[in-house]
Amino acid sequence: MELNYEVTGSDDAPVVLLGSSLGATQAMWAPQLEVLAQRFRVVTFDHRGHGGSDVPLGPYTIEDLGGDVVELLNTLLVEQASYVGISLGGAVGLWLAQNAPDRFNRFALICPPANPAENKQMWADRAAQVRAEGTQAITDATLGRWFLPEFTETAAIRQMLLDSPDEGYAACCEALGSTNLLPGLSDITAPVLLVTAESDTSIPPETVVPLAGQIPGAHLEIIPNAAHLVTYSHPEIINPLLLTHLT
Asked: How many CB atoms lie within 10 A of CB 232?
């Protein structure tokens, strides 16, 4: 299983990995890349089933997705890195914080679903819909959750969703539908920045805010007037938060 990835920044800088949202590729991090690459060796990647990565038949598990990231570190000969993840990438980050603590020194987790299995049937239904009708069937609804109406620069993200491999998207839905990361939150030892968006209907703030009390030492930020894909719509807020936490 090989992940498609790109490395930006100085070879001798600290490494940070960026894990994307369901249905998005590493290109979604364009608003962060230049800023982070000034201080870090930034590794962007596509989750399995996404972008230029392999698309094995599903279902996938969160262990599969997290294991892919650990293998990517091995491929890059990187002993330790920081990790930034949003949405699906945030869930992967929570798994890594619990299961590969020796490989990561800090995490920034943005709108992370800690217990998506709570909505297991919804994920199963969405996987079935995408396998039957393609990602175009869910694109408009997804964009409606990811951005507030006043944010209109969504063409690139729309195209990512449309181009997303149907099987990869569906299989990652099934991974989320079988994931509950709540039991291991109290065992996390790395510094964690949690970010939630005030108007996020995909991963509502009321599901993220309690995580700050369950992850030892976690720092919580609530972004006003923002929806789910807050990294893309509000980089002027997110980028300084990331730089402060990661440095």
From this structure: 24
Q: Does this model's pTM top 0.85? A: yes
- Homologous superfamily of 5-246: Alpha/Beta hydrolase fold, catalytic domain (3.40.50.1820)
Instruction: Report the alpha-carbon distance of residue 190 to residue 40 in Å, rounded.
Output: 19
The sign one gets for the Cα dihedral 221, 178, 139, 156 is: positive
Smallest CA-to-CA distance from 238 within 196, 202, 190, 192 is with: 196
Domain assignments of the chain as residue spans, ordered by start? 5-246
Whether 26 and 20 have beta carbons less than 8 Å apart is answered as yes
Residues 6+ apart with CB under 8 A from 241: 108, 193, 195, 221
- Rounded distance, CA 51 to CA 65, Å? 14
Residue 63: closest CA among 104, 101, 98:
98
Q: What is the pLDDT of residues 43-76, one digit of tens each?
A: 999 999 999 999 999 899 999 999 999 999 999 9
C-alpha span between 174 and 108 (Å, rounded): 24
